[in-house]
Amino acid sequence: xxxxxxxxERKKAATRQKIADAALRLFLERGYDAVGIRDVxxxxxxxxxxxxxxxxxKEALVFEQDEDFEQRLTRAVTDRAPHEPLVPALRxxxxxxxxxxxxxxxxxxxxxxxxxxxxxxxxxxMRLRHAESLATAIAADPDLSATPTASRAIARFVIDxxxxxxEATDPQAAVAEVFQMIEAAWAVACPSGDSTGTARP
Length: 201
What we know:
Elements (H helix, E strand, L loop, with lengths): L6 H24 L6 H8 L3 H7 L3 H5 L3 H13 L7 H16 L5 H8 L2 H24 L7 H20 L3 H19 L12
Helix pairs in contact: 1-2, 5-6, 5-8, 6-9, 6-10, 8-9, 9-10
């Protein structure tokens, strides 16, 4: 999570984290469907209105790092080193996200998500949103020659790499395998660059 700098921002982030921690604790103890928003607010010792200030829905409580993940993906494009090609930068970020989400501590959370149609639907909509944000960042980069369509296609491949790796027996091997295909697709989308993406001048 991005570290807030001001006192107000730190307090807001602490409250958000307290709510998310309380929600996850209750969801894992009682089951996602058995816990209501009021239960979470009471466990976190906040008002329901405060909870909704930080989270738009019950599903969002489970994916509390959603915004941070989205920002990390777009920053992999916008903040990469001056001479770093695009695809390796994206691969490195996806590898880090996969390590985070396949840690042993995350297994009970993913079992809960996989067992809930509402959470699976929310995860799918979240992935599509992440892909659109990533596509926008790729298309806006003046050093890349990808069209809007190519940018969206590559972005969706990258997001799918994360999803497929999370479900694989060997997540990092899955990332490597999918990114071989992404590199090939990028070479077609941007033939002016090399097979791993166009380096920035």
